[in-house]
Amino acid sequence: MKTRLLLVAAALLSLARTGIRRAPAPDAFELYVIGESTPAGVPYPRFNTAWLVKEMLGGEAMGLPIRTISLAAAHNSIYPQEMALEEALARRNPSNPGAVLVYSGNNDNGRSEPMTAAERVKEAVLFRVRPLARLIYYLERRRRMSSQRSLETFEYHLNQAVSHAKRHGLRVVLSTVVSNVADIPPAVALGKTPVAEVERLLDAGRAIEAKREWLGAITYYESLAAAHPDVEAYATFRVAKCREAMGEHEEANRLYWRCVEMNKDDQFGRATPALNEVIRRTGKARGVHTFLAQETFSERAPHRVPGYDLIMDGQHPTMAGHMLLASGFAVSLAGPGIAVRWYPSKPEEVFERLKYTKEDHAEAYLSAARWLFSVSAENAYSRERLDRAQYYFDWVTKRDPENFSGWLGLGLVAMARRGLLVTKADLDWLGTYDLYYGGSYAVPLKDIPEIVKKLREHKIAEPLIVRIETASKNQRPAQLQSRPNY
């Protein structure tokens, strides 16, 4: 008997020495958010969807403080976000309850394509070995290995994200994806019809519209699309505008969504109806809640098609739109131990909690303006996008006459109207000075003469050039030390 007790004691001592550890006690409700730039908070600084959901839930869930882990990042598709989620979950406290919110789709290929043999092997065999999956991802990111992006691969990686979350016992909320369908027309690709000819042809149609001769404009655009397939998507968008002006909203909406499916030669993506259907189908098949964001935005939009009323540019919501998205996620999470405690009634309430300054508001408008300017590149007819960018830059200068970024933006838009965004040399020049996406511009004073030289080459009005030169001395030191993280 004594021998048996001694053996048990020795075994217990051995186990203690080798490190049997208790699982750490729960210390937080972990709220993960994955997706693109919208849940990352663009165009608003010091803001993201995770923060706003946490605020709406009163900062706690299931009796624990909410800890937000926002993995969402600009320019990301679902694939890198799925991998980032898996890596983040591997480091979490397994005792903590939590949830994963997923908003991804505008940066993905929303069109179905036949699966390549290599992609089938990866998904069926290689990706099942997760260290190998990470190696493949690493090689693809560095262009050492080809990869396919299609509606089918989006569905695969979306399901992977759901599986990662469920494996850790976390709740999942998916969301359909919203984009500006009503107010940003499709791009017209360069190279097929000369830019001057495209402008002449489309200006003629706009002139007919200006006379409110809607049927005449429709006939003109339909004939133009038949004769010039490269402008078909844009011409279809103008037909939708004419139908809307005539009060034929159902037909206009059908044409707007057709433009989204037609337009492939653009600088930004819009979630297709097929992609949103994949999100809804995945939620149903996996037994997870899906917030119908696209449908919710459509219900609030004039004539049920989202435009600038709720979206600042082509993809990123206004603060009112961000409130819709966050409240949809918060309500989806509500249940035992989780309650929505704050429903902001207007954007000003959110800005007050963020303690937004004049500079913060300017950053949001500058971010949207630079986005619109950037997606006007390599577009034979980008006037509507440039008009909106100019409106935002002008908004900034009217509220802060010394704001360098606002004045420089107006100068860049003026040059874009004179062909700046067409040739490779000019596009490379913009890249050299980091003048595409971002918030406030960060241009070292030594580079201002080169900017001014370019402005004069494009025959930009001298008073505007003087304003840019003068305001350049007002850049905040932080702007000159680092580039915007967009």
Number of helices: 21
Multimerization status: single chain
Element string (H = helix, E = strand): HEHEEHEHHHEHHHHHEHHHHHHHHHH
Question: How much helix is in the residues?
Answer: 40-55%
> What top-tier CATH class of the largest domain fits best?
Alpha Beta
CATH superfamily of the largest domain: SGNH hydrolase
Strand content: 5-15%
E-strand count: 6
Strand order of the largest sheet: 2-3-1-4-5-6
Per the CATH scheme, the topology name of the largest domain is: Rossmann fold
Rounded mean pLDDT is 92
CATH architecture of the largest domain: 3-Layer(aba) Sandwich
End-to-end separation in angstroms reads 71 Å
* Overall form: globular
Poorly predicted regions are: 5-20, 478-486
Query: Total domains, how many?
Result: 3
Structural class: alpha/beta
Largest sheet properties = 6 strands, mixed
Radius of gyration from the CA trace?
Answer: 26 Å
What would your notes on this structure say?
- There is one protein chain.
- The chain has 3 domains: 29-113 and 148-180 and 272-351, SGNH hydrolase (Rossmann fold), CATH 3.40.50; 195-262, Tetratricopeptide repeat domain (Serine Threonine Protein Phosphatase 5, Tetratricopeptide repeat, Alpha Horseshoe); 358-481, no CATH class.
- The model is unreliable at 5-20 and 478-486 (pLDDT under 50).
- Helix 2 (49-56) packs across helix 13 (319-333) and helix 3 (78-89) packs parallel to helix 6 (151-167).
- By secondary structure, it is an alpha/beta fold.
- A 6-stranded mixed β-sheet has the order 2-3-1-4-5-6, sandwiched between helices.
- Helix content is 53%, strand content 6%.
- The N and C termini lie far apart (71 Å).
- The chain contains 21 helices and 6 strands.
- The radius of gyration is 26 Å and the shape is globular.
- The relative contact order is 0.10.
